[in-house]
Amino acid sequence: MVGKATNSLASKKWLDFGSLLIWLIVIVLINIVGSYFFHRFDLTEEKRYTLSESTTNRVETLEDVVFVRVYLEGNLPTEFRELRNATKELLDEFRAYSGDNVQYEFINPSESNDEDERVEVYKELTRQGLQYTNIRMQAGDKTSEQIIFPGAVVSYKDRETPIQLLKSAAGATEQQMITSSIQQLEYEFISAIQKITNPEKKFVAFIEGHGELSELETADAQRAIAEFYEVERISIDQKIDALNGFDAAIVARPDSAFSEQDKFILDQFIMRGGRVLWLIDPVFARMDSLKTSNLTMGLVLEHNLEDLLFKYGARLNNDLILDIQCISKPIVTGYIGNQPRQEMFPWYYEPLLIGNEESPISSNLDRIKTEFVSTIEVIEVDSVSSTVLLTSSDQAKLVNAPTRISFNILREPPKYALFNSGPHTAALLLEGQFPSVFKNRLPQRLVNDKSLQFKERSVPTKMIVVSDGDIIRNPVSKLEEKFYALGFDRYAQKVYANKEFILNCVNYLCEDDGLLNVRKKEFKTRLLDQSKIDEKRYYWQILNTSVPVGFVIIIGMIFFVWRKRKFEK
Length: 569
Known about the structure:
Distance between the termini: 16 Å
Strand content: 25-35%
Mean pLDDT: 84
Shape: globular
Number of domains: 4
Structural class: alpha+beta
Radius of gyration: 31 Å
CATH class of the largest domain: Alpha Beta
């Protein structure tokens, strides 16, 4: 009996050892397989942890190591730790998909105890293009200030580019800025990687010579576009080869007529596959006129482009959109002593346009700031499709030019019953094969001239038509020769999404659809109710402490009873 018991015990030990060995082998195999295959199950509603297809394709095809230095480390406030952790998670995914061709390190720029050494580090980071943020730290009753650099430097071979991870916005809270910054992380990193791994850029021309906006007035948009493309300002000046080598052209608020020769050059540029962003004011009206007078006129502006755009599929109407959803302006309503009293009133001539959520160009964008914007009609053209990009709200009405424009409208309460004709289209995407406006208009000798290489119909291409040139105009200080952010409203202290919209337009025209798909991703930050947190803080602290301890005790007791009964047998 004793021998049998001994043999049984030995067999059990060998069985237990065999089971343990099998489990170890299974775990090792799982890890080996896991090292070759990467997958994350994303259960979030907005798929915040799922990289876009264009991003994964880009990092999977990296030919060499991209190294990222992130300067978010050290004793950080909760909000910035959230940004740091989100950055690390994203870079971990990049590394997994790239086959270790994305490497990174987190650096604390304030790590040194030597103040002079820290200052030198700060200077070097500033030279590299990173901006510092001065934050206040609260520790009990003591308050201190700390300098952090919420940014990164991406390096590839002998090239590098900075990334500003914290996206500031006038009027936004710190949490809102952090949320927006996390939302844009994938776009910021993949666009930086694209810039330094693809040094060859497409060429974009800003057309000059017809009273278009100046370089200073479009400086912010030009700077944003120049991060991805080569940007030049070009005067066509009847030169047939003026646009040779360019992929896209921007016509930004001309105020004088195009000659037939310049129209022909633009037309043939489109016929050969060129893309154009038209930013046109059908009605001439300027806020500068209202600074010196209480009254100005909205007059029809002749560009000599009407037949061109009509032929392509768009008609710009000689009207103005007035919208309840608009910018507010201050007006003096009285005096307190010798001091004027100002109140904000809606200025209907500056509608805040709404983006079409079905288009990657305009989805997930804030409102777009405009100034004296008109309507656009779609003209049916064979082999050309149209997509509305921007509209007014449904609380809008139209006035036909010529029309009187006065600040007196601010003093009158809005008659809502009259603002009922919207929404109105203000931006349109046209895609397809466009007919030339010069078909059947040129003398036969010019048609047969091989040097002109005249084309009656375009190859498949695209264009965007916007009925407001001011949509790309940034505020300027002519005395100081400086500009402010595109879309900035100094009264509301808010930056609208004009720059993002313009950049999306250029990206789409230049066929950088992948960047658009990344930029349009968004997710919601589900914040806790602070009042409930304060109310039940101690309850949850006690619960979170006692429940795990209690659980361990219960499991231990169950295990003790089970072992006792087992060995009593």
